[in-house]
């Protein structure tokens, strides 16, 4: 199982799309790791600067419909190449969400009020996320603001993907 | 309780439900292109399972960058080409015999009512126009689809869109789908199949239905679908009739068989809207989200640098005819670059034969080779920063056609009008000879 959790990157906008996550001009790269320098290259968001905002981050927090647009799995790959294996958002586009789980990564949907509280209380702080799949709990914690817990709601498929490391290993033995 | 088309397809293709709401489906077709497939192929090779589940059910094309623009894209093309050869995939369409995947595969008759198919491309939803369940997937899903011929989906919920009335003159399927996306939003149909119904769809050609279904994903939809009917049978007839595979002896027989793939009258839907198309006018997107749609007349006078006519949304022969009708006998604005990319070689040949290419050439358009090209900013018409494009494509995301570029999505007729005017304009404006405001002198010109 992949290690899930760590420091948060706050991306405060709805509909962050796959072109913003990894522009199509890099789809000619032949390895997943080669995508590393290009993550969020076209994302323009107040306060976001790739050179200073990305290092050390392991989790993305965003709003609604994260990952809309293209089917490119290069989006989760580019995240993972930068050490980010968890995205927490109000909602996800279908293909992006499936790609995350297929790669054994976590796309956690949490209610809008929780997302709103996280942005209100925690943005600007060094917030850590701990993911507990046994108790199905997300725990966000920052020195300045204390902790916030949110239940994690996952189906059988999602849990199996996280535990088996993804769809390839699961499907290879089953079909 | 009746079933929707999507529910019927899911039930008939179910392999197993390993978890609640997880439907593993048998696939009738797996489509591949050179951008998302090579990494799947490389992984299969690395895992020691360089095989395919059925070479006859896999179709492949080089379409995103055609011809290759650099060494990296040449390698991607080669990876797909060599794989198709060693796996015995006969339906592989190389440069010169190719076209945009979502145009060429329907053209070859590869999609039939009741089919399941996936491809590593979000606009795979296009193929639902034939009454199929067609979904875009990532490379991992594609890899398992190639190897095992299965793919997993959530439950088959359907969002129904009734297009009522009829399309007024000068209003096209692209305007209708932009109106739908504006109404339900970019996540309005997430995890749902979008079912297009009503008299407007019934009267629409397969090309028009493909334009509708193509943009279902811009509202979050998994697949678009239309009910198979006589129009579907007419399109498929060269392939399913006696001149083709001989599956059916008559069109009536085919129609009767395909009618099992229609939604039942008492089927239930997860959402539903209806839209009176008689009241529609030409539309255009503004900003960076495809649900940000306004009447084209409200954007009159917006200066543009490039016009792009093509893509899996609007690069078919009907689209080119529609644009050529506006351009006929005129030349485009001197400060506009016009680019037309016929979606496939067959569309290119038809446009040549019909004199449409001549119309484009005389108007001052660059005729580019079939391919995805500028739509996603990979080749053949990338914008410079600060430039604006009137485009018949499907996404206006920031940076999509080149960093810092602005894309306005519209119908081919509206894009042709923009090319003539040098600004956003309706085809009716241009026909009336409404003159556009004189564009400012560009910097650096003497």
Automatic annotation (TrEMBL), chain A:
Transmembrane segments: none annotated. Its EC number is 4.2.1.33. It holds the Pfam family Aconitase_C. The keyword Acetylation does not apply. Gene3D superfamilies: Aconitase, domain 4. It is an enzyme of class 4 (lyase). Residues 56-111 form the Aconitase A/isopropylmalate dehydratase small subunit swivel domain. This is 3-isopropylmalate dehydratase small subunit. It comes from bioreactor metagenome.
TrEMBL record, chain B:
The keyword Hydrolase does not apply. Gene3D superfamilies: Aconitase, domain 3 (3.30.499.10). This is 3-isopropylmalate dehydratase large subunit. Keywords: 4Fe-4S, Amino-acid biosynthesis, Branched-chain amino acid biosynthesis, Iron, Iron-sulfur, Leucine biosynthesis, Lyase, Metal-binding. Residues 7-422 form the Aconitase/3-isopropylmalate dehydratase large subunit alpha/beta/alpha domain. Its cofactor is [4Fe-4S] cluster. GO terms for biological process: L-leucine biosynthetic process. It comes from the Bacteria. GO terms for molecular function: 3-isopropylmalate dehydratase activity; 4 iron, 4 sulfur cluster binding; metal ion binding. The keyword Lyase applies. Its EC number is 4.2.1.33. It holds the Pfam family Aconitase. InterPro entries: Acnase/IPM_dHydase_lsu_aba_1/3, Acoase/IPM_deHydtase_lsu_aba, Aconitase_4Fe-4S_BS, Aconitase_4Fe-4S_dom, HAcnase/IPMdehydase_lsu_prok, Homoacnase/IPMdehydase_lsu, IPM_dehydratase_rel_enz, IPMI_cat.
């Amino acid at each position: 199982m992949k290690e899930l959790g760590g420091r948060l990157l706050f991306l405060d906008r709805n509909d962050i799309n796959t072109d913003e996550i990894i522009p199509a001009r890099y789809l000619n790269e032949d390895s997943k790791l080669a995508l590393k320098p290009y993550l969020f290259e076209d994302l323009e968001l107040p306060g976001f600067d790739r050179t200073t905002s990305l290092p050390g981050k392991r989790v993305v927090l965003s709003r609604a419909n994260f990952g809309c647009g293209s089917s490119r799995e290069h989006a989760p790959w580019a995240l993972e190449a930068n050490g980010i294996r968890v995205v927490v958002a109000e909602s996800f586009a279908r293909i992006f969400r499936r790609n995350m789980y297929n790669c054994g990564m976590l796309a956690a949907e949490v209610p809008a009020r929780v997302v709103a509280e996280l942005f209100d209380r925690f943005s600007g702080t060094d917030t850590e996320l701990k993911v507990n799949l046994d108790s199905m709990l997300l725990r966000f914690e920052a020195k300045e603001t204390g902790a916030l817990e949110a239940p994690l709601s996952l189906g059988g498929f999602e849990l199996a993907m996280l535990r088996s490391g993804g769809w390839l290993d699961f499907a290879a033995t089953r079909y | 309780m009746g079933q929707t088309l999507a529910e019927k397809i899911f039930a008939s293709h179910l392999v197993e439900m390993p978890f609640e709401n997880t439907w593993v489906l048998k696939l009738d077709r797996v489509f591949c292109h050179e951008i998302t497939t090579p990494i799947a192929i490389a992984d299969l090779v690395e895992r020691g399972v360089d095989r395919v589940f059925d070479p006859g059910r896999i179709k492949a094309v080089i379409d995103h960058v055609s011809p290759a623009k650099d060494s990296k894209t040449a390698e991607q093309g080669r990876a797909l080409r060599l794989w198709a050869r060693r796996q015995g995939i006969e339906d592989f369409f190389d440069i010169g015999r190719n076209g945009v995947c979502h145009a060429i595969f329907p053209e070859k008759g590869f999609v039939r009512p009741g089919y399941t198919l996936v491809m590593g491309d979000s606009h795979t939803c296009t193929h639902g126009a034939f009454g199929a369940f067609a979904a875009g997937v990532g490379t991992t899903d594609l890899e398992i689809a190639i190897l095992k011929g299965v793919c997993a989906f959530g439950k088959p919920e359907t969002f129904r869109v009734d297009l009522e009335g009829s399309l007024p003159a000068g209003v096209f399927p692209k305007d209708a789908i932009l109106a739908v996306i504006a109404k339900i939003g970019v996540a309005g149909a997430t995890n749902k199949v979008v079912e297009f119904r009503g008299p407007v769809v019934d009267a629409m050609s397969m090309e028009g239905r493909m334009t509708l279904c193509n943009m279902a994903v811009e509202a979050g939809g998994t697949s678009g679908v239309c009910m198979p009917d006589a129009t579907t049978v007419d399109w498929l007839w060269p392939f399913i009739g006696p001149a083709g595979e001989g599956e059916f002896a008559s069109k009536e027989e085919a129609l009767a068989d395909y009618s099992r793939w229609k939604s039942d009258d008492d089927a239930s839907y997860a959402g539903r809207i209806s839209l009176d198309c008689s009241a529609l006018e030409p539309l255009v997107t503004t900003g960076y989200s495809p649900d940000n749609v306004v009447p084209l007349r409200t954007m009159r006078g917006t200066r543009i640098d490039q016009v792009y006519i093509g893509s899996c949304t609007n690069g078919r022969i009907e689209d080119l005819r529609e644009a050529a009708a506006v351009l006929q006998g005129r030349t485009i604005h001197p400060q506009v670059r016009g680019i037309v990319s016929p979606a496939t070689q067959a569309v290119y040949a038809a446009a040549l034969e019909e004199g449409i290419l001549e119309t484009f050439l005389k108007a001052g358009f660059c005729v580019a080779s079939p391919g995805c090209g500028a739509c996603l900013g990979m080749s053949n018409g990338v914008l410079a920063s600060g430039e604006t494009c009137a485009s018949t494509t499907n996404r206006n995301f920031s940076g999509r056609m080149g960093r810092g570029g602005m894309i306005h999505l519209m119908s081919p007729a509206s894009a042709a009008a923009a090319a003539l005017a040098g600004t956003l304009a309706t085809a009716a404006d241009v026909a009336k000879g409404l003159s556009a405001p004189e564009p400012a002198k560009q910097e650096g010109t003497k």
